[in-house]
Automatic annotation (TrEMBL):
Residues 502-566 form the FlgD/Vpr Ig-like domain. It holds the Pfam family FlgD_ig. Signal peptide: none annotated. It comes from the Bacteria. This is T9SS type A sorting domain-containing protein. It comes from candidate division WOR-3 bacterium. InterPro entries: FlgD/Vpr_Ig-like, Secre_tail. Transmembrane segments: none annotated.
Length: 577
């Protein structure tokens, strides 16, 4: 027995149990799952089609690992071809983390390093301008004042522009700007709202926008009221319509949800859209292609029975429809990080919502849930995470109905955690940031026009007084591409996979010779989509899954090759009819 014990001590071992990784029908996400998979794991892909039963199981040797692939739905043979082709791509684990074309790129600082309290007073905001360049907004105290101002920075093609002031609130009276939210207006310029507390701690909603050279004077959105506080505005725009929503009231209980929209000359008088029987707060807004707002909010039931409600309401262009009950019966949480819920619309303008809640029948802790409206009905809320400490207000980003991400902050050590939805369930959690020397909070999550996922978060280095603002990107390093001052930018190939046609979008900054070709998996050219000289601007071309003779091609994986000024980029696409 002594020898056995000695052997066990000298030769330690660990047991690695096989896992099942759930992924959507998305090339980059499947490749990322293969990269992160361990030897013996299963990668389960759901095609989101009527045949949801497991219809294909195959074991492949990829990146030096034996992985079982489980495909549910139709078109699985073609998807297996795509999976087998993954081994022809570089293994991102063998590349430098900061330059890997897949996965999270690693945090980088947005604001200028200092000991100021940058962003310590609530939500940061991220938008992309007409040139797809990011703008980041936050509040903080400048050296010349103890008041909180609104700062911003934008990527100017070479680097971040440095900390700039959007809203200045100099003394001697105490004025503090909190909860900055931004959107891109019809003029392709940033528009922001924030709530500003005066020296008497009375809060109002203010708005300003950038006119191309300077920020316009701030104006009040809500009606002036010396007895009412207004908090946490959100702003959204589409077309020529821009909407702001916020919560407020004369006391700390029975707040109302307010809304106002820009009529071309100013903000319309505030309108109440919530019920008077609840304490309403932590709303969010999204605007569809018709310029109509979709709003969701949390309504706390202050009666002894405590039946909280998650409400959703929609304006159809003429009137507000009756509020819909998305969920009722759980204890709804406002989020320890100023974000109780997040709302986004997909490509079919179906609303998606993520929120904090406590199911008192099963646990006594707050957890992250997700729901969406499908075929005119809300699906039963899905439990995203069951971790003991997952309380941080969730953030939601929806690229389309098959590419949905949620991120939140874990309360015990402030890890920033993310997951994605594959159409039926959520994939295992990914820890995006786990730096115990920082006090990390997830702040904003958005897809850029190229389909890359951006996360904005803040952090407080231990031993420092100042709070800093950071960004992280899931996907290729866009900022490095912009810095190289390329003549072109391949914006997107979508949809991918496709059944009828896919669109290749690219942008030229200078006159450029262009050739766009399609190759099969053997490297044979099967179609020439475009060739010639193109002028600067945005360009698109469709491919309908046919060869040069206009014959319909079989399902499978193909490669789109773009040669622009003798520089070639090749990207895979999947044809699934």
């Amino acid at each position: 027995m002594a020898k056995l014990i000695t052997f066990l001590i000298l030769v330690p071992f660990t047991l690695a149990f096989p896992r099942t990784l759930l992924v959507p029908e998305d090339f980059l996400t499947i490749q990322q799952a293969v990269v992160s998979a361990q030897n013996g794991d299963t990668v389960s892909v759901n095609l989101g089609r009527p045949n949801g039963q497991r219809s294909l199981v195959a074991t492949e040797r990829i990146f030096g690992k034996t992985i079982t692939f489980e495909v549910r739905g139709e078109g699985n043979d073609e998807l297996l071809e795509m999976i087998q082709g993954l081994d022809n791509f570089p293994n991102p684990n063998q590349q430098d983390h900061q330059t890997s074309p897949l996965g999270w790129q690693g945090q980088k600082q947005v604001n200028e390093p200092d000991d100021l309290y940058d962003g310590c007073s609530g939500l940061k905001s991220l938008i992309f301008d007409s040139q797809s360049r990011p703008w980041v907004f936050w509040s903080g105290d400048p050296p010349s004042s103890s008041n909180f101002w609104v700062f911003y920075t934008n990527w100017d093609g070479q680097g971040w522009s440095g900390d700039r002031v959007a809203v200045a609130l100099p003394g001697p009276e105490r004025w503090d700007a909190y909860i900055v939210r931004a959107t891109l207006g019809l003029d392709n310029q940033p528009h922001i709202v924030c709530h500003i507390a005066d020296s008497a701690n009375l809060s109002d909603i203010y708005y300003t926008h950038y006119n191309g050279s300077e920020w316009t004077p701030k104006i009040m959105v809500n009606l002036p009221d010396s007895t009412e506080n207004d908090y946490q505005p959100h702003i959204a725009a589409n077309g020529n319509q821009m909407w702001v929503t916020w919560f407020g009231g004369p006391t700390d209980f029975f707040y109302k949800i307010y809304v106002s929209h820009w009529d071309g000359n100013g903000w319309t008088p505030e309108e109440v859209i919530s019920s008077a029987n609840y304490h309403n707060w932590f709303q969010n807004v999204a605007v569809d292609r018709n310029g109509n707002p979709h709003i969701a909010w949390i309504a706390l039931d202050l009666t002894p029975n405590r039946q909280d409600v998650l409400f959703y309401r929609y304006y159809n262009g003429n009137r507000w429809l009756e509020p819909e009950t998305v969920m009722k019966g759980m204890l709804l949480y406002a989020g320890i990080h100023w974000s109780g819920l997040d709302l986004e619309l997909d490509e079919e303008e179906n609303p998606h919502i993520t929120f904090d809640a406590m199911d008192t029948t099963n646990s006594q802790r707050f957890q992250i849930y997700y729901t969406k409206k499908q075929n005119g009905k809300w699906i039963k809320p899905i439990l995203v995470t069951n971790n003991e400490y997952d309380e941080g207000g969730p953030l939601l980003a929806v690229l389309n109905s098959h590419n949905i991400w949620i991120t939140w902050t874990r309360n015990n050590n402030h890890d920033i955690v993310a997951t994605y939805y594959n159409g039926q369930d959520f994939a295992p959690e990914i820890i995006v940031e786990s730096n115990l020397s920082y006090f990390d909070n997830a702040q904003d999550l958005k897809f850029d026009p190229q389909g890359r996922l951006w996360l904005i978060h803040n952090g407080v280095p231990y031993g420092r007084d100042g709070e800093e603002v950071y960004y992280n990107i899931y996907g290729s390093s866009y900022l490095e591409e912009v810095t190289q001052n390329r003549k072109y930018q391949v914006k997107m190939i979508t949809p991918n996979p496709f059944s009828h046609h896919t669109t290749i979008s690219y942008e030229l900054t200078k006159p450029t010779s262009v050739k766009i070709e399609v190759f099969d998996k053997l490297g044979k050219r099967i179609n020439l989509l475009e060739t010639g000289f193109k002028y600067p601007g945005s360009h698109t071309i469709n491919w309908e899954g046919k060869d040069q003779d206009d014959k319909v091609l079989p399902n499978g994986i193909y490669f789109i090759s773009l040669t622009l000024d003798n520089k070639k980029e090749t990207m895979p696409v999947i044809l699934l009819r």
